[in-house]
Amino acid sequence: MDPFRSRPEALPAVIPIFPLQGGLLLPGARLPLNIFEPRFLAMVEEALGQGRLIGMVLPDPAYPRVEGRSTPYRTGCLGRIASFAETEDGRYLITLRGLNRFDLLEELPETPRGVRRVKADYAPYHADLEDAPAGEVVDREALLAALRSYFRALNIEADWEAIRNTDAAKLVTSLCMMCPFGDAEKQALLTAPDHAARAGLLISLLRIESAGPVAGKAPS
């Protein structure tokens, strides 16, 4: 059970962040991660002792890296470590479950182990803690048509029966995270105001990329 659903005010004001290219996390979704850099190993270890919470953020390509540090977009998604395993070579395999989007108010000094932290504001996104709306909020036929064209452009085989039987909201969330869109497009999907708007944007992106240079690439 999500401990914050009935008490959104309990969401932490300060959180560690993980800037990761292509690392889109959406509320209600799960994101598997392979952690191996020392600073991110430290991030996981510190998170495990402090509520298992990590803020996923996408790097903003409009800003150059400074001393190896990227500049994140101003909106990210808080995730909770839902599973954890350590490999023999010292890597951590974790899965984050998306909880709530947040706006980055201020970046704080790193911890002694190099973990980046920010002050987070969740107020604009408390609806993320609620269940997805019942019923269809997606033009399913338009989505499937755009997806067929997109998969055809990328030469991807798909189990269409399974896709047709998948809940529309879950299908949209999965496609937003799995399709190899650029970080600017993924950020736009993250900041869409609701499920219907996100689905409409996804359909537009699928149509655009079906006719563009993305053909020949594979999903990440």
From TrEMBL:
Annotated PROSITE patterns: LON_N
Lon N-terminal domain location: 15-210
Stretch forming the signal peptide: none
Domain of life: Bacteria
Coiled coil segments of this chain: none
SMART domains linked: LON
Protein name, as recorded: Peptidase S16
